[in-house]
Structure formats: structure tokens, C-alpha cells
Batch of 3 targets.
Target 1
Amino acid sequence: MTCSNIYDLKKIPIYYEELGGKKLFTKALSEIDVNKKSVHLFYYKNANIPICALPKLGVVIISKRGFLSFCYNFYFFINSFNTKNIEISKQNIFSIAKSALSHEIGHLLDPNLSNIKSASNEIILSIANGIIKYNIDLKDDYYYKKNLPLEIEDSIIQFKKNNVTREINAWNIGKTIANFQSDTERYIFEKIKEYALATYNYGNLKDIVAENNVEKYIKSLL
């Protein structure tokens, strides 16, 4: 077990407040090797928004509930494996915030992001064409669970690979700018990367259709 006592999870929000809440992220940003003027933190105290980046705006969105949920899920994840202990401590909660923030800033700094986005758009267009070609009824609640044409399945796989590339790029860039203060902090970063890549929802056809305006593409093609 990597968490000696699962009830230690109750300490996470306490440490979060002791670290200053919003100030935790501004302090983490101060340790990251990046032009601070190019990164804008938008903090929501009451909303439940996962930490995420808006590259076109140079913005990283953070919420208290979203970050605490991330911490809980991370500790539950590592608790499932026989791995080196990551103590629930004030310093380690800070390192988790810094690691997650470094990753999101990695998205902002990724020079290949526009190419990845362009490739995603091409794949979405291919999926839209496939839906039209094979007359797939999106009003059927279970359309995405049925046997899909190989052409569409291949496009879904390519879409997921493209997303994996985007995430790995951001993690690799994040690692170069994190300015680790200790071996423990470096280890936490690597375990968070492992957790994030293992649990990221790359989606099925229904998710792709809903999150990428596929129906809009279809209407433009008809």
C-alpha cells in the first residue's frame, strides 16, 4: 500500500488551505521556468473544473474542487500498485499542484499544437464522412456500441493516437520547465504523468461526436 492510512486523504483539503488555496498555484508558477507574462491563471473557488489549458489565450483554468478531486484520484491510483510511498504531506500536495501546472503550461508552449489540432480536424472530417457514407443514425442511443465500419474504427484509433501525442508532448515540455527542487518532486511528476496517461478519457465515437461538433461537420457536408 502506498498510502499508509487511507484516512490521511482527509488531510489533503487541510494542507490545501494551509498552502493558501489560490496562492498555492501562484507559488508553484513562480518555481516553473517559463515567462510568467505568457501564462495567466484563472481560479474558480466554487466551480468543479478540472485543471486545463486554453492555449490560444495563454490561460490555465484551475478550481479548488477540481484540484482536490485530482489529488484524491491520484492517491487512489497509486494506492493500487506496489510502488514507492508518496506521503500525503503539505510539500507533496504542493508538488502535485506544480506538476499538474507544468503539464498544462506544456500545452501552452507546445510548438506542434497547431499541427496536432489540424490533424484532429482532418480526422473529425473523415469520421463525419464515414457517418454519412454508412448512414449511421446518431439519434440511436446505442449507435456507438454497434459494430462500426472499419473505416470509422480506424479514424477513431487515429484520433486517440493524436490525443496521446498531444498529451505526451505537454508532459515532456512540462518536465523541462518544472525546475524540480528534489528527487521526490521529480518522482511525483513521473507518477502523475503515468496516472494521467493511464486514466485520460480518450473517448468512444459518441464522445468524439459530442465534444467535437461532428454533427456540424455533417451538416456542412450534406
Target 2
Amino acid sequence: MTASEQPLSDKPIYNIGAVKRITEIPVATLRAWERRYGFPDAARTSGGHRLYTEGQIVRLQWVKARIDEGMQTRQAIEALREMEREGRFPEAPPPLVDDGVSAPDPSLEHFKTRLVAALLAGDLQGADQSLGEVLALYPLEALIPGLIRPVFTAIGEAWFAGEINVAQEHLATQFLHHRLVMWLMTGPPPRDVAPVVLACAPQEWHEGSLLMLGVLLRRKRWPVAYLGQAVPLPDLARYVRATQPLAVILVAMTATAAESLLAWPQWLPEAAAHARPIVAYGGHIFTAEPEWQARVPGIFLGPTLETGLLNLERLLQQAAPLKR
């Protein structure tokens, strides 16, 4: 029987040590939250020791998940209380996806419409409010493919159609980039393995898909070294020699950028000869013009973000023991 089928017990039977193990929230943090925010309001034994209910543990897990996704502690607790007042709080926190990325959720369409409208109007405060609301309801594993990617697409289409100018497009995309970078730099503790290097091909300036991949990798606890836009191959090679990463992931959206990747084996001969590190790539051009898949050395991760993440994680899991 699932948590949603069986009511949560309201008996305070879990001591603070058990709650720490279940939620992975430090004891000092649990005490500080109760002192500062009155959350959760734990019962006490005759000796003054805290006892928690199942419902309180679920709420702690929910708040922690929101904090891991970038919300401030006070904001996460207030979002929880608002949901409880409206009777919308689930009996269990939204599950984090273990295998792959969840498909876009039709119920996110409302938030997409609001977020796109705010960004195209230059209303960054409204965009921030919309994103804060949806972060309180969904994990990043669902929001990246279900909201962030479609919003990027909508902004690009608006620019292409002449509905917004370059300045408006940059303002909107930079808002999303800022959020993605913030999520990339936060998240659960990374595994004790060498990092995954993410880099755009030389002459490639479109980094949205690379940032989204980086965030999803971090959510799965893979350490990420994000190098960003238009990385020259000589500089990439120096960085790889210095850090000995688990994998190098390259993104190219155009034929010009894909052509610049043809020379990577000259700069990373060890990777070309022995696949250490793994070198893989993706991007729009490899789907629009599949012949590039045969031309560019390395491993093509697949035509979509979801497929790419699945294939990359399989490769990383196979290679990780060599780097522990």
C-alpha cells in the first residue's frame, strides 16, 4: 500500500536521530528550523527530547527537496503552509525520478503560459513569482523537460517570428540561464568520482540544453565541471589533462560548430584511443543532419535531452569504478 493510500500516522514516535537518518537533515538544522520558523512543532518526551510524526517527516522531506532545488528555507516552509491551508499538500513528497526524466506534464501548461508571458513582457518579478510557485509543486526532474525547455523554445519562436527583439530575447533567456546555473551549483552531495566536463563546441554559443543536462546530472549526484560557451579545443585539452574527468560532453547546434569538433581527437589522443575519458556529444545539428553522427568521432548521446541523459548515465555508471 502506498503512502497516498494509507493515512500517515500522527503519533509522535520518531526521535530526532531517526528523523535525521530518514530525511538526511542534520540535527542542528532540525532544531534551528523549529526555533526560527516553528517548523515542525515536535512533541516532547517527559525528558524534553523531540518526537516526530510520520506526517512531520514527510513535510520535512518535502521542504528539503524544495531547498535542494534552489528555494530559500523560509520560502519553502511558507509554500508548504500555503498548500496545507488550501488542502493541496500531498501525503508524500513528489517522487524524484530515478531512471531518466519524466515526460512533460500537461498540468504544467498553465505555468508555462504565465512564465512565457512574464518573460516576454520583461516582467522579471512576475516570472520569478511564477517559477517560485511551480518549484513548490514539482521537482526539477519534472520541471526541466516539462517547463524550462518549452519556455526556451517559446522564447526562441517569438524572436524568430519578430514578436520580440534581440534585447527582449536576451533578457528572457538570461533569466532562465541564471536559474539553471543556480540549480547547477546546488543540489545533493556529489558522488566521490571524477567530474563530468560539459562544454559547448568552439563557435557554439547556445548553451541552454547543456545547462539543462548539467542540472539533471547534478540531481543524480554526478559531479559536473561546466565550461560553458565556445570552448577552444586546446583549452579543453589542457583542462582535461589537469582534472582527469570521467567524461567530456560536447554540444553543437550548427554545422559550423559540429565541424569544429572533427579535430578533438588531435587534442585528446588518449580519449580517442582508449575512451578515457569518455567523449560524447549531442545537439540539434546531429538530429537535423544525421550524417554528422558518422563524421564526428565519439559517442552520439541521442536526439533528445531525455535519451541523452539515459545514455550518458549508463556510460558513467560503467566508467565510474575506474575513477573511484
Target 3
Amino acid sequence: MKISSIREKVVKEVNQIPEEKLAQVLDLIHHFRLGLQLSKKKTAKVTDFAGCWKDMPEDVYQDFIRDITQRRHTAFSRRKNRETDIS
């Protein structure tokens, strides 16, 4: 379906909404649009780091992964102990 025909259908639907409900529809559309903008910004921030380790030598990368795995294991095992300790 073409964008222009979708836009026309949206306009037709909005034109059928009772006047007392238009403010709610406007809020919905506005917040939906803002949410899309925020989502794009978050995606851009995350992808800024994409490929940041691509030039890292394999042995250094493997050490890095092992270190992260160990740190996560240590952090989560401490948290698990705190969560199960009722005293």
C-alpha cells in the first residue's frame, strides 16, 4: 500500500472521530511520534559502539571476554547471596 493512500486513510479515520475525543487522539499521535524519535536516538547511541573491538587482536579479545565473564559471574553470585539471605 502506498504511503499516500495510508495517509489518506488515517485522515479519513481521524475525520470520523467525535470532536470531544480529538484532544486524546492528538496526545496519542504526539506521544507516538516522540517515542519514535527517542527510539532512533537510543539506537544511534548503541550503534556508536558497533565495531569498536574490530581491530583488537584475537588473543586480547579472548582475554577480554574471559574477564567480562568472570566479572559477571562474581557480581551475580554476590547478588544472589544477598537476595537469598533473609537475616
